[in-house]
Write a structure and sequence with these properties.
Shape: globular
Helix content: 25-40%
Number of helices: 14
CATH class of the largest domain: Alpha Beta
CATH superfamily of the largest domain: Type I PLP-dependent aspartate aminotransferase-like (Major domain)
Distance between the termini: 57 Å
Radius of gyration: 22 Å
Structural class: alpha/beta
Order of helices and strands: HEEEHHHEHEHEHEHEHEEHHHEEHEEEH
Number of strands: 15
């Protein structure tokens, strides 16, 4: 039989599958034949450097056969058991998570993805506290299921606005580059924190079950918290008896140079909701890790949470092996080193590209914000840009792809979040591509 061509593969996908967050006509996806390390290869053997780790989840890099072998071994033993049964992989992964999480975070409910981890975090907060309101940020994304989507402020939810869940209250963001209060971080009084407390007073803190915060901002533009912001939010939670939930779906597992971003900020949350890097995207798996205090509450009370695929043995086996890989290959240390190197290189790029307004990065979770004018900070594309407002950024994204880069470009952001296994030479390769593509944006600077 003749080998299926790349165009046939693409056409089958266009004809018979739906694509996320996109109109369905005019799509030109890469037909990926294989992947290794930080590279994707199409059917014409064109190589793309993956500068966004897939969807910022392939933290260990592509094609690590240690995970393949661990998954095969588990499937040869047992591929599925109900959540009421246990496996060695489930216990081993839960134990390891208790070791690497901060403070008294001790027990894990395994879910199937980040959104389901967030959903269960919201449910659990309400069960545990008997309260009903959840405080979250506008510039955040927590997942695409209804409660998670409502909790996020990301405008992708607006098309489904009528179906948002009740009792989610949003607050402004500590977006220092575009401070909502027009202040500078060096002299402000942390109005971003007093604002949250004011909202608590308006809503009645006795009604608030939890404050949900990303461990470190991701797809909303890698907005950097002021150094003491999360500590002050933790203090507000303690003051009013409110739980702090850290969304570490994207920022967890070494992405920020620590196991979890809350470690960067010196904060111990009551729950961590995570996914992505727990298996580095090799298999779907999410996790809700809770304090021993919360866990003990349900010793004699029913935990009204559950999923058919909770603690799926094959996914847990992948997770166990991936966590070993982080340690064996020193990937978290490499994230720190390469993140520092990228910081230096982008500072040099700022001198050549007047379109770079700001660069925000923690470990290997960063993005370049492009502007038409550094003084006015007019963005190259506005927040929630319409298709016709994305002309410039689409040109930049198209150039990146043409030059052999798979990158996440959104509004006026170009994300830099490669696998934690990236080398200095590969960083240089990727930044050289971005360097060339930014010349397009520079032409629109006024």
């Amino acid at each position: 039989m003749p080998e299926t061509t790349a165009q046939e593969i693409i056409q089958d996908n266009l004809d018979y599958t739906l694509f996320s967050w996109s109109k369905q006509k005019g799509i030109a996806p890469i037909a990926v034949k294989h992947a290794a390390g930080v590279y994707l290869y199409d059917y014409d053997d064109k190589r793309y450097i993956d500068f966004s780790s897939g969807l910022i989840n392939v933290n260990i890099g592509h094609g690590n056969q240690r995970v393949t072998e661990a998954v095969m071994k588990q499937m040869q033993e047992v591929s599925y058991v109900t959540p009421g049964c246990v496996t060695e992989a489930r216990g081993a992964l839960g134990k390891k998570l208790a070791e690497i999480t901060p403070g008294n975070l001790q027990k894990t409910l395994f879910t199937v993805c980040g959104a389901s981890a967030i959903e269960n975090a919201i449910k659990l907060a309400r069960l545990y506290t008997g309260r009903h309101k959840i405080i979250t940020r506008y510039r955040a994304f927590h997942g695409a299921s209804y409660a998670a989507m409502t909790a996020g402020g990301d405008p992708r939810k607006l098309a489904l606005d009528a179906q948002q869940v009740p009792n989610i209250v949003h607050v402004e963001d500590p977006y220092c580059y575009r401070c909502p209060w027009g202040k500078e971080i060096t002299s402000c009084q942390r109005e971003c924190v007093s604002h949250v407390e004011r909202i608590l007073e308006f809503e009645g803190p006795e009604n608030v079950a939890a404050i949900l915060m990303e461990g470190e901002s991701g797809t909303s533009g890698c907005i950097k918290y002021p150094p003491d912001y999360l500590q002050k939010i933790r203090a507000l939670c303690d003051k009013y008896g409110i739980l702090l939930i850290a969304d570490e779906v994207m920022s967890g597992f070494g992405r920020t140079g620590k196991w979890f971003a809350c470690d960067v900020h010196g904060v111990v949350p009551d729950m961590i909701a995570t996914a992505k890097g727990i298996t580095a995207g090799y298999l779907p798996l999410g996790a809700l890790i809770v304090s021993d205090t919360i866990a003990k509450h349900f010793d004699d009370k029913v935990l009204w949470l559950g999923l058919t695929y909770s603690a799926h043995p094959v996914a847990c086996a992948a997770g166990v092996e991936v966590l070993k890989i982080y340690e064996d290959e020193h990937l978290i240390e490499n994230a720190v080193a390469m993140g520092n190197y990228i910081d230096q290189r982008v500072e040099e790029m700022k001198q050549r590209h007047p379109s770079i307004g700001d660069f925000r990065n923690t470990g290997l979770l960063g993005c370049i914000e492009l502007v038409k004018n550094r003084i006015s900070k007019e963005p190259m594309a506005p927040f929630n840009a319409k298709p016709e407002e994305m002309t410039i950024m689409n040109q930049v994204a198209g150039k990146l792809k043409q030059l052999g880069m798979y990158a996440f470009v959104r509004w006026n952001y170009v994300f830099i979040a490669p696998p934690l296994s990236i080398t200095k030479e590969q960083v240089d390769e990727g930044l050289a591509i971005i360097d060339e593509a930014l010349m397009i944006a520079d032409e629109y600077v006024i």
